[in-house]
Amino acid sequence: MNANVCKEMTLRDVANAAGVSMATVSRSLNDSSLIPEKTRRRVRTIADRLGFEFNAQARSLITRRVGTIGIILPPDFDRFGVNLYHGTLHNALRSVLECNDIDLIVAFLTNHFSGRNNVRKLVSSQKVDGLIIVQPVFEQELIDFLRSKEIPFVFSHYPPPEDCPDDVDVIYPDNELGGMLAAKHLAAIGRTRILCIGAKGGRPHHREWDLRLAGVQRGLDEAGIALREGDLLRGDMTMESGYDLVAGKADLRGYDGIVALNDLMAIGAINAIREIGLRIPQDIAVVGYDDTDLASCMRPSLTTIHQPREELSLVTCERLLQLIKSSHGGRAGRTAASRATPTARRQAPASRRPSQASLVLAQAARRIVLSPKLVVRDTTRV
Q1: CATH number of 237's domain
Q2: pTM
Q3: Are residues 155 and 225 in the same domain?
């Protein structure tokens, strides 16, 4: 992936050579105290050996301007379950930006106290060069505003709605594929009576859960397993909800596999299964989704679908830097054209005519879908 950001070698190259994550590489190169000194020295040595170095020319694209990127968090970021996943995603985004010597401002879409739109405030006060928007709802008014202000932006993590404009950059994981991987794994280990624990769908911000469920249904269909009425339980994606749904399932002993559409509901289900006296995975195998930090440290450790957080962060940041570079070129071209042909500005009112920079950004828009992967642990390892 050649994004021409701050390196000749990629973070992935260094991470693979060092046997660590890309976030660890970023933090080590930035001398973060979160990484042990021994690891930092080893990563820096490997980076030097591979010729990994900052690209000053690409970095100056940012530092000639404000030098700051804004990250807009989802509205329910403060909820434990949402923060558990998005907190690690935010840390990964921060690490990539810090590697590029870029500062960041973190905000919600609206101020929780005043109700004021934080994006408008950040853009109007010229505090950011671009935005990474982690929002489940793609507001057309917001998109139009950012286009009018020629601010590069990328939507990250959440899948786009069907009516999302084609000229908007969206980078997100393949939720349907993840659901299919979970279902096919249970089928592959011989489970034939599957219980699915999902979310109450139907609202725009539940689109990722709807896609995961569609993947589960597709995976079971391909394995010749029917998801019958009563095999789908819907909750609010919390640990308590997962526990209550499974504990209240009178015919639970008739199932030999459970797929939960996030890790928290899976953990709640595991607690209920153990209280009932069933064994995991001998009696019931359990698969979660997201691969949060809890999944690997709980006992039994949770088989789950790993969200490509580090890759998502890297690709999102690289894409935004590409757009910022493109917007610079577009603005330069517009300024030169205005000086050479002053009459062109009188052909139509400026408010009705898209700028060259806006056209460049719109024409370059991409949809990038990243693949999750199955991580097998104790809850399905017989």
Answers
A1: 3.40.50.2300
A2: 0.75
A3: no
